[in-house]
Amino acid sequence: MHSASDPRVAIVGAGLGGLACARVLQRHGRSVTVFEREAAAGARPQGGSLDLHAGTGQRALHAAGLLDRFRALSRPEAQEWRLLDPATAAVLPQQGPPHDHGEEDRPEIDRGQLRGLLLESLTAGSVRWDRAVSGVTPLGDGTARLHFGDGGSEEFDLVVGADGAWSRVRPALSQAVPGYTGVVFVEAGFDDCDTRHAGLARLVGAGTMVARAGAGVLFAQRNSNGHIRLYAAFRAPEDWHRAAGVELGDTAAVRAHLLTLFDGWDERLLGFLRDNDGGFVHRPLFTLPAPHTWEHVPGVTLLGDAAHLMPPLGLGANLALLDGAELAHALVTASDVDEAVRAYESVMLPRSGEAAEDCAEGLDHLLPPAAA
């Protein structure tokens, strides 16, 4: 065993929650190693814009000592949320986004910018890139062995699975696997929006635009640097493209199919399906059972999507950040690792279970199953 005052902690996955956990641990003088299967920080795009809530994501960044830097990068004006009539593209009166919970302070930031902020805050060498994990074995004495894709292994006092939907750490705690929700998101992007795509930019406004009718929803959101990201959402079998005779890499065929699904919508809104830069990205939505729980296993725990994968309705990233900060705080303040993990899980599991149930209801409200 390592010294009780500085246990050996491995975090699997350099996403937002894992990095928040590492940052808070380091702020308190603790050592930690983050293992990430990607080759480098810029190996792939990090996704769209996130609204960080005061009671969750912003609270975690405060614990990480990064709230001021976040505020300097964030876009408060992008909290604007508008609902458009699919038939006319007119702006409708509405109550705000799903799961608003009355919070007014939810500035937006690109996921990539936020991840960069967290990465820059860590001690050099904290993240071991290109280090894929294949699994974890609890050793029965409170420690766990981390297995790597290259056949190597290392032992730790705690392995934290922060490795997302298809976590390699989760099987050490739970037999749950993500299940398909019946909802597909098809993503598209638009660059230089205020010049090349000015008409679409006016529809989106400063933040997020939503239009929905029957079995289809168009979400469009402002990102930084003049970029707009669109998600066309609909209910369909996971292999809908096969039944439709559509190759996912065939941009013209995907476009034609989407235009059929959204037939009858205002031509200005259909511009989001006609005029994108580049192709379409197919994103079927998967979730873990809600609530997802497990019997405590010494030496292993989970956070973020590895623990509570839920529909992308504004809660997942916020909860991942809070999970990471709270786990780190527990490790710093409890008398030993096992006490810390038990304390963390006793708060995180009920909170995430309730949030996941809320998000599942929110998804059914946005895209009613009967409309499929």
From TrEMBL:
UniProt-recorded name of the protein: Flavin-dependent monooxygenase
Function: An FAD-requiring monooxygenase active on some tetracycline antibiotic derivatives, which leads to their inactivation. Hydroxylates carbon 11a of tetracycline and some analogs.
Keyword terms of this UniProt record: Cytoplasm, FAD, Flavoprotein, Monooxygenase, NADP, Nucleotide-binding, Oxidoreductase
Coiled-coil spans in chain: none
Cofactors required: FAD
GO molecular function: FAD binding; monooxygenase activity
Family: Belongs to the aromatic-ring hydroxylase family. TetX subfamily.
Start and end residues of each FAD-binding domain: 8-192, 300-334
Catalytic activity: a tetracycline + NADPH + O2 + H(+) = an 11a-hydroxytetracycline + NADP(+) + H2O
Pfam families hit by this protein: FAD_binding_3
EC number: 1.14.13.-
Keyword Coiled coil attached: no
Positions bound to NADPH: 44
Subunit record text: Monomer.
SUPFAM superfamilies: FAD/NAD(P)-binding domain
